Amino acid sequence: MRDLYQRLALSPDANDHQINSALARCPNSALRQDATSVLAVAPHRETYDTLHHTLSDIGRLRARLGLTHGAHWQGDVANDFSLPPDNAISRHDELVDRVSHAVSLYNRWRRLRGPWLLIAVFTVGAGIGLALGFALSLGLGLG
Predict the structure, then answer these.
(1) Which of 71, 72, 86, 88 is surrounded by the most beta carbons within 10 Å?
(2) Distance from the Cα of residue 131 to its chain's centroid
(3) What is the separation of C-alpha 103 from the centre of its chain, rounded to a whole number of angstroms?
(4) Of 60, 79, 98, which residue constitutes the final position of a domain?
(5) CATH number, position 29
(6) d(CA 74, CA 82)
(7) Spatial separation of the C-alpha atoms in residues 54 and 35, rounded to whole Å
């Protein structure tokens, strides 16, 4: 389905005067005939507007998901409601990235915890032993 508003360079909320002037400027007779039969008749336009809104939503969803038509569809009627891919990261993807980063930091800490904990306990124990030995040697030497 063609996006008649896009093809006529109109806004979907264009009034009748704007539609009629766009139809008068349209160089393509097939497009002008289709647009006249759809946009110039009020019940047809209401139905078309409902369908246009739905297809626009689908186009935005496809862009958000990174789905686009292949190169052979570019510029074709089938591509009227396609938008360029939206490369913004979703909140879900951002949260998954943050959690993955936190998990990798935790796993790294767990992997290094064993050797460092052993070294820390040995160092503290040796320091306390040296301090007590030094204190005892000073105490014995004075007394």
Answers:
(1) 86
(2) 59
(3) 22
(4) 79
(5) 1.10.287
(6) 9
(7) 19
Q: Are 85 and 66 in contact (CB under 8 A)?
A: yes
Q: Are 69 and 78 in contact (CB under 8 A)?
A: yes
Give the pLDDT mean for 122-142: 85
Structure confidence by residue, pLDDT tens digits, 63-97 = 777 776 666 555 555 567 776 666 666 777 888 89
- H or E segment to which residue 42 belongs: helix 42-64
**How far apart are alpha carbons 100 and 31 in whole angstroms?**
52
What is the rounded distance in angstroms from the CA atom of residue 19 to the CA atom of residue 26? 10
Answer whether residue 113 is part of any domain.
yes
Same domain, 57 and 102: no
pTM check: above 0.90: no
Query: Alpha-carbon distance 121 to 127, whole Å?
Result: 10
Picking from 26, 44, 79, the residue at the C-terminal end of a domain is 79
